[in-house]
Amino acid sequence: MNLNKKETYIKKNLINNLNAISIKKLSRNEIDFFNNKKILITGVSGIIGINLLFFFNKLNIEKKKNIYVDGTYNVSLFNFVKKYFKKNKKVKFIKKDLTKDKIQKSKKYDFIFHCAGYGQPSKFLKYKKSTYKLNSTSIIDLKENLKKNGKFIYLSTTEIYSGNEKKCNEESVGNTGSTHPRSSYIDSKKFGESFIVNCFKDFIIFRACLIYGPGTKLNDERVLNQVILRSIKNKKIDVYGGLNQLRSNLFIYDAINMMIKTIVKTKNQIFNLNNHKMITLGKVFSMIGSISEKKLINHGSKMIGSPKVIKISNKKILKKTNYKISTGIREGLIKTINWYKNLSNTK
Question: Is the pTM of this model over 0.90?
């Protein structure tokens, strides 16, 4: 296979990864809910944004729906994604820094998914001013682009529970102050939630927790993705402590289905978006080592401010949607590793 054919084959696999989300768990009503609607996805280059885009496109193709999607991104978007949608009249990409520029006032949407932000700790610790803006002024500006009866969907974070080591439900609170190393992220997300609850007529807030899978970039600095990349590129896998920390990783395909069902069935609610099965980082890393047949080397340190324990209840969202999470951690890791293997071989 020559280089051009190999590159085409790899990019086709990457697109297939993004198209692999199942819609079999959705009812006819849940699918029809979005028909003939116009949707804005901010942060369409992130893992949740890009998978939402492919989800709606799948409804258009497989269910013959008419769903129009505008997606904003700031720095970069996969070239093979741009090429895939190049002739698609129902999808439009907008390169825009939402901390500096507004969406054109004349653009009105039935649904706005505000996914833009820095989910990676290294990024929100570095870009603190932008983090504040994306969760405050950007939301205020986006309100102007929502139709009168439109629905605003906000991707918040379970990090707002930081400092609370008990099992947290949606009514729980965290225990951190303005001097906490991650306060720019935690407190701005709290502001975003508060503004939406008090100023939007129809909304859903998802407190996302450790969502992983196809759609992430090579420069994603979250620990799980970094360890996966080391398992692909290096002869050994270097990890840096915290092996006993509990995590509840949720695979992206399940996350999208849970979001869609919730949006259709409810309004004006806050939901934890996570897996109920807890597992230690050590076990996750061991699985990655086993799948890649690489040895783990623990160097014994961790990122500043990272939570010791994350115990999040997702009973509310599972009860509202009657959803059963179907992707186990090992299966999800295999799919994520395959995504990164293909992505590592693209230009």
Answer: yes
